[in-house]
Amino acid sequence: MKAPKSQQVRRLEAVIGLEVHVQLSTASKIFCSCPARLPATVSVSEIEANSHVCPICTGHPGTLPVLNRKVVEFAIQAGLATQCAINPKSLLARKNYFYPDLPKGYQISQYDEPMCRNGVLGIQLPNGEEKRVRIHRIHIEEDAGKSIHYSGFSVLNLNRAGVPLVEIVSEPDMASPAEAGAYLRELHSVVTFLGISDGNMEEGNFRCDANVSVREPGAELGTRVEIKNVNSFKFIEKAIEFEVLRQSEVLRSGGTVIQETRSFDSFRGTTVPMRSKEEAEDYRYFPDPDLIPIYVDGDWIEELKKRLPELPQQRRGRYVATYGLSAYDAGLLTSSREIAEFYDQVMEVLKKSTVDAELTQSAKTAANWVCGEVLRMLNETGQTLQTSKLTPHHLAELVRLLQLQQISSTGAKQIFGKVWETGKSVSEVIQGEGLVQISDPAVLKPIIDKIIAAFPGQVAEYRSGKDKLIGFFVGQVMKETQGKANPTLVNEWVRQALSSG
Ligand code: ADP
Ligand code: MG
Ligand code: ZN
């Protein structure tokens, strides 16, 4: 089926609920001591297949699982960060199905009694409004291995088998692809700020199933379709968008939506059927007799509450309240923990060298640079703040010099480029490149006079009332000085020269 065109279909109201699988970054797997996490520089796909396995995670008969306490703590933290009720007693259950990459023939998960219930996540919509999405439940489970299919045979890699996950299930509270995207981004920030997951979507460490239905505004919930395992924010929004239009079209043309599981074809931008409800498996869940219930008492919860870091929403609030940043900039800064921490470090340095009255201005300038040049360079070079040579000190120094008008913004960009490349300090670069801003009247005034003499036509126009031409003259002076002239001073002196001539 071709992608329906939005203008051809009157779209119905969308109803979206998301199930997100988050890989927890514990040192060891959920029921054995095999490593679950690799050195930061190595990705799971890079290590040798089946090198991180033992009899427990490969399901040998006679072995017994032992629950990793850290997994329980991480799940409680996820629950606390999303205002869930933490279940004092929860159960581990077997979810039975047969697939080669599931060595035991069942996955250990949670069913009737998950660890956390009834939470809420505040999200920021693209228009700046806040919305609350209810969390239905959060449970822990083990990941399966990975099958790789070739023509005629398949190979198995069980390094992932037994790696801990939390599944975070929302209520069907989102009403557009953009809302679903905002929810996912917020949830991603929350788990990465908590430090319970690296959130790496390419590695599949943060993946999402989207449940989508449509209805006439205000009507009962419609039949839902589940789109499986989409692993980028952009693709999730596209998959939902397609599905909303497809279902709207089905209903508009008198058909019925069938409950099924579909997958997203990122190449065509469409969803395609995987299996219908009739083909859905019966997992025959039952409590795992090898594992005792998980008991979580109030003291433990209190202790974990105390250890919660500042979460993205609180951080956004702090940036807006103490630095006067826009909600939009605050949102960009908190889109990743790395960026937010870098910004905080820049501000720490600036606080030492800036008088209070100027701190908000510096905070805004710093935010503009982090959200602008820094993010741009990270995107362009594929580096992270860890691997790049840029330090918070570099940026703080640049902001301070801009504030003192010792460098122009054009100059600052050149300096930034050099600093990024070499890791040298800002003052070293300025000295090496001769980029100090020119504010000396003995240098600038003769240049201004020369420019005025060179453009008599424009001078006459200016004097006959075409005020806007001031920009032309300032531009010429900036060009003459390779962007090093102090633009405020040039502006003032050009005006003086033109009115006195
Ligand atoms: P299952 O466990 O079979 O996947 P659930 O009832 O637990 O089913 O729902 C899974 C997800 O589907 C939840 O995120 C929920 O919000 C969402 N959901 C349920 N009903 C609908 C619906 N009619 N439209 C869209 N999403 C729905
Ligand atoms: Mg489901
Ligand atoms: Zn193991």
Q: Which key phrases capture this entry?
A:
501 residues; alpha+beta; Arc Repressor Mutant, subunit A; 9-stranded mixed beta sheet; 3-stranded antiparallel beta sheet; 15 helices; 41% helix; binds adenosine-5'-diphosphate; binds magnesium ion; binds zinc ion
What does this protein look like?
There is one protein chain. This protein is α+β, with helices and mostly antiparallel strands and 501 residues long. It has three domains: 14-303, no CATH class; 310-433, no CATH class; 441-499, Arc Repressor Mutant, subunit A, CATH 1.10.10. The chain is 41% helix and 19% strand. It contains 15 helices and 16 strands. It has helices at 69-81, 177-194, 233-252, 298-306, 312-323, 327-333, 337-353, 356-381, 392-403, 409-422, 426-433, 441-454, 456-463, 470-480, 487-500; strands at residues 13-23, 85-86, 89-90, 93-96, 106-109, 116-124, 130-142, 146-150, 153-157, 164-170, 206-215, 225-230, 260-265, 270-276, 286-287, 294-295. A nine-stranded mixed beta sheet has the order 2-6-7-10-1-11-12-13-14. β6 (116-124) and β7 form a beta hairpin. α12 crosses α14. The longest helix is centred in the C-terminal third of the chain and has 26 residues, at 356-381. The radius of gyration is 29 Å and the shape is elongated. 39% of the residues are buried. The model has no long low-confidence stretch (mean pLDDT 91). It binds adenosine-5'-diphosphate, magnesium ion and zinc ion.
